Task: structure prediction
Amino acid sequence: MDLNGKSTAYDVLADINYFPATGKVISTEEWKPRYLGVRNEFTRKMTVRDIRGMEDKFSLDENGFKFVQLPSKHRSTDDDETIKTQWYPEVSEVIKDL
Result:
C-alpha cells in the first residue's frame, strides 16, 4: 500500500483464519483444520499490505504494534541457548526503552 492507500505489487490477497471471541477454551479439533488451511465460516479473504518504507507511520498507541530496528550486528540463531543469551537480553532492553 502506498501513502495514498492504493495497492502495490507486493500486496497479497490471503485467506485469514480466526477464532471468534467466545470466551471458551478452543479444542484441538477446532483449531487444527484452520491451522491446516481448511476454509470455513471463520475464514476471510483479506489484503496483507506491504508497508516497507512506511514503518514509521505505525505506533503502539494507534495501531497496537510498532516496528523497531535493532542495532545492526551479527546475531547467531544456531541454537536455543544462543538465542536466549544473545537475543533475549537485547530485546528486553528494547522493550524497556519503549
In short: Residues 80-97 form the longest helix (18 residues). Residues 83 and 89 are 9 Å apart (CA to CA).
